[in-house]
């Protein structure tokens, strides 16, 4: 059964939860990262949710749907880059990086399915 609102989509729920987890963890980053790494990782993780929500509203137009969901995929990948920087800068530990990256990869798999099968959404 198809989701009735964007908030019902599994990909939205998982990406929103990940964005909130990143928000909480990024509160511990040094103040000098406020306008750099903190802003970037929060923005990209939130954009995954926003682009999926926008895509949901455009699902009657498969090409538009896939374009928005593809944007979500790109933002998800960008979030993984910022997680890599967070690890290398020692703002998160290996376990946090692994957990967050696995969640992001799961979101990526859901997004990939949406791109390959827009008719199911």
Describe the model.
The protein has 121 residues and is an all-alpha fold. The protein has one domain (6-120): 23S rRNA-intervening sequence (de novo design (two linked rop proteins), Up-down Bundle). It has four helices and no strands. Helix 1 packs antiparallel against helix 2 (34-57) and helix 2 (34-57) runs antiparallel to helix 3. It is elongated. The mean pLDDT is 95.
SSE layout:
Elements: H1 10-26, H2 34-57, H3 62-88, H4 94-116
Helix pairs in contact: 1-2, 1-4, 2-3, 3-4
Distance between the termini: 9 Å
**Structural domain tally:** 1
Percent of residues in β-strands:
under 5%
**CATH top level class name:** Mainly Alpha
Structural class: mainly alpha
- Outline, from the CA principal axes? elongated
Mean of the pLDDT scores? 95
The biggest sheet amounts to: none
For the CA atoms, what is the radius of gyration?
A: 15 Å
Task: Flag low-confidence runs.
Answer: none
Q: Give the CATH topology.
A: de novo design (two linked rop proteins)
Second CATH tier, the architecture: Up-down Bundle
Short structural summary:
This protein has about 120 residues and is mainly alpha-helical. It has a single domain, classed as 23S rRNA-intervening sequence (de novo design (two linked rop proteins)), CATH 1.20.1440.
